[in-house]
Design brief:
382 residues, alpha/beta, TIM Barrel, 8-stranded parallel beta sheet, 16 strands, 18% strand, globular
Length: 382
């Protein structure tokens, strides 16, 4: 049976392995590398889908765990799937919910069958295993769906990482078998192994032995230092097939995205753009800014003179946005979210163009200093 998606490499940077490609899905074409904004519960926080489209978004992510709990995958399936339910006619990727249920460390128990957990809101008990995850995601109907996996937070012992990896492999076999919509939904496998290179290599061998439409690196940016993230991404990316899309899960600072693109990764997602916006922070070409600080109170220039988002081009000044943030006005979160989402999408598009133009090394080296400093501030929570 043919795959519901197709990936074609357009250009590869000989210096780094960074690549530009075309990912064709049932709901449209995605030009990679691409940043995928996260609409966890079928919505981006503080943004409408019209806002998201104006940011030139090509694909969004939603989460099976949250949609399973509310409003329920059966309800979404009854109206024709997630695209119709949330009125989004472009590609969607759904995360399996594995990371979310495993992050509920005080509310869940893991067995080889799956995870028994309590709803983080009302305490009701639920169960998700690989078969249930496929049922949920098939009902949601996303273009791309993820295998159910076990993700360990770092630092993890070798034994903990190996056990989670083995369980991930066992569950992948079940996911492949129980995936009921292979002609319309692409299933991606997830490579685990924490910070241990021999486990990453073994996991890559097992996961890529399944002829799946795409593959992902999971279990990074879950507590480890930036240098460890970089090491694992660099090591693992070359173990992934060159003729399939490569997805780095849950990574979303501008530096992390640029570094992953250098490693040949095609797809990224993170909640950071809207989360930071709700705390009054934005990405910019000069580094990360906090609109809470008084230095912006009399600055009537835009957030970023180099930005083409509607917040920056429609005349909203730093002084006004500082006022909204300090006053707790919801409009502040909206305007900053639009800026941040557009920033990351544009960064990926600019990197793609540099790859096509044969200038990616110069592009990478020019941005590195600013983005590294921004990443340090982000990771420090400042």
């Amino acid at each position: 049976m043919s795959s519901p998606i197709a990936y074609e490499t357009e250009a590869v940077c000989p210096w780094s392995g960074a690549r530009a490609g075309i990912l064709t899905t049932p709901h449209g074409v995605v030009k990679t590398p691409v940043f995928m904004p996260v609409g966890t519960s079928a919505a981006l926080k503080s943004m409408t889908w019209e806002d998201v489209k104006r940011c030139e978004t090509e694909i969004v992510l939603s989460n099976a765990y949250h949609l399973f709990l509310r409003p329920g995958h059966e309800l979404i399936g009854s109206v024709g799937g997630l695209h119709k339910f949330m009125s989004w006619d472009m590609p969607i990727l759904t995360d399996s919910g594995g990371f979310q249920v495993f992050s509920l460390s005080d509310l869940r128990s893991i067995t080889d069958d799956g995870v028994l957990f309590r709803d983080h809101r009302d305490g009701r008990q639920h169960f998700i295993g690989p078969q249930k995850s496929m049922e949920i995601q098939n009902a949601l109907g996303a273009d791309i769906m993820m295998a159910f996996d076990e993700c360990v937070k770092n630092p993890a012992t070798y034994g903990e990482a190996e056990a989670a990896m083995n369980r991930t492999h066992q569950w992948l076999e079940i996911c492949v078998d129980k995936h009921a919509c292979k002609d319309t939904q692409a299933l991606f496998g997830i490579i685990q192994g924490s910070m241990y290179e021999d486990l990453r290599r073994k996991s890559a061998e097992v996961v890529t032995s399944y002829d799946l439409p795409g593959y992902a690196i999971g279990g990074v940016a879950v507590g480890e230092a930036r240098s460890e993230i970089e090491r694992v991404v660099m090591f693992t990316s070359v173990l992934m097939p060159a003729d399939k899309p490569r997805y780095l899960m849950g990574v979303g600072t501008p530096w992390d995205i640029l570094y992953a693109i250098r490693c040949g990764i095609d797809m990224f997602d993170c909640v950071s753009p809207t989360r930071l916006a709700r705390h009054g922070a934005v990405f910019s070409s000069q580094g990360r800014l906090s609109l809470k600080t008084a230095t912006h109170s009399r600055d009537f220039g835009p957030l970023d003179e180099n930005c083409d988002c509607s917040t920056c081009t429609h005349g909203y000044s730093r002084a006004y946005l500082h006022h909204l943030v300090r006053s707790g006005e919801f409009a502040g979160s909206i305007l900053l979210s639009i800026h941040n989402v557009r920033y990351l999408i544009r960064e990926a598009k600019n990197a793609r163009q540099a790859i096509l133009d044969g200038t990616f090394r110069e592009y990478y080296e020019k941005l590195s200093k600013v983005l590294l400093a921004e990443s340090d501030r982000t990771n420090a929570g400042t």
